[in-house]
From TrEMBL:
UniProt xrefs under Pfam families: Peptidase_S10
E.C. code: 3.4.16.-
Gene Ontology biological-process annotations: proteolysis
InterPro entries for this protein: Peptidase_S10 (IPR001563), Ser_caboxypep_ser_AS (IPR018202)
GO cellular component: extracellular region; vacuole
Record-linked PANTHER family: SERINE CARBOXYPEPTIDASE-LIKE 46, SERINE PROTEASE FAMILY S10 SERINE CARBOXYPEPTIDASE
Natural source organism: Arabidopsis suecica (Swedish thale-cress)
Full protein name: Carboxypeptidase
Amino acid sequence: MSHLQCLTMATALILLQALSTVSSTILSRADRITRLPGQPRVGFQQYSGYVTIDDKKQRALFYYLAEAETKPISKPLVLWLNGGPGCSSLGVGAFSENGPFRPKGSVLVRNLHSWNQEANMLYLETPVGVGFSYATESSSYEGVNDKITAKDNLVFLQKWFLKFPQYLNRSLFITGESYAGHYVPQLAQLMIQYNKKHNLFNLKGIAIGNPVMEFATDFNSRAEYFWSHGLISDPTYKMFTSYCNYSRYVSEYYRGSVSSMCTKVMSQVSIETSRFVDKYDVTLDVCIPAVLSQSKVVNPQPQQVGETVDVCVEDETVNYLNRRDVQKALHARLVGTRKWTVCSNVLDYEVLDVEVPTINIVGSLVKAGVPVLVYSGDQDSVIPLTGSRTLVKRLAEELGLRTTVPYRVWFAGQQVGGWTQVYGNTLAFATVRGAAHEVPFSQPARALVLFKAFLGGRPLPEDF
């Protein structure tokens, strides 16, 4: 986007800021959801539809907004992004994790721990080619990378505010998980840069769960996690840390040249950890639906010849979002594909971007005064808590931040919700006890306590 275009956009947004509530309602009326099929009656408003981010190439991003259950005008706006890269914030975030509903058969049931109890929740299917987001030219799905995604997400927000100018001055938080450890900090960085000239975004903080922030540290913490949880033997642990660590394996895998040593090590690791243990939650003895297998880059698992393991018998979300009546209610359409999928099968993402660290960007946000929360489900072996904890502590030391909340337990109800530590006034780390890679799915009540404290800028509860 050129400087002139940015200026035009900023001018338009400033003018829209002065619009009446009636006028702003007219702008978003076409995207209002009357009622989703099978949905219980609720008192809050829902919107969904498209924001065209590139008129020339007809690239459009799909969003879903669930306004706050009570007093939406007084509550912040929270953008949620799922990872992958290439997996849906609608199917995973909204309908499986922290949105107001979850599909069950032909109907929707209420999520009693939905995050729209505390905020207006905006879910974005990004980048183009994910979920209902589309481009009319298939070439737009090729060579997509972190830089393109961040810019597209910025343009999306600018144009989304044209539809919803009532949110312009609202406190804005960006949240997400997994590969959103790239998406979220990169978008926040662009917003801060944009604000230097146009002061558009009222960014109040970011929160990232089990995030990829630094390739080697995050990926190589897997070996210690496997070993400490009894998933691999002592000799295999030694091989996994001495001869071929996980970052080397992933790097070789995505360059199409896995060495014989890494093949040998990974084969032994796979045998011992067992394909019947879910790496996203090593303690779970039942199936997590396929909709939650949102990690492509962080957990590459090439299918073995003759492997016919049925991950899950039924996928409620996929079935629901592929219904014609549901798509009509969502104002959604399928372009260039016959089926909505949780993780895109048309997107060609630059997977080696995973090797580019974002922890330094997180540091720049902290220095700019943006509060950052890094949280980890402690049953996840894909991006283990040990790597995230190490990175946050190292960052705090580099920035010269003193500990303001020493490492301690926090509570959700009458149970320990996890552990936390806070550095300065802007950097915090927390674990969520018993949670998987997708924290709001696996520990919804504890995740809501964490979310509420984050929005309020308060330490997590230290008693019940």
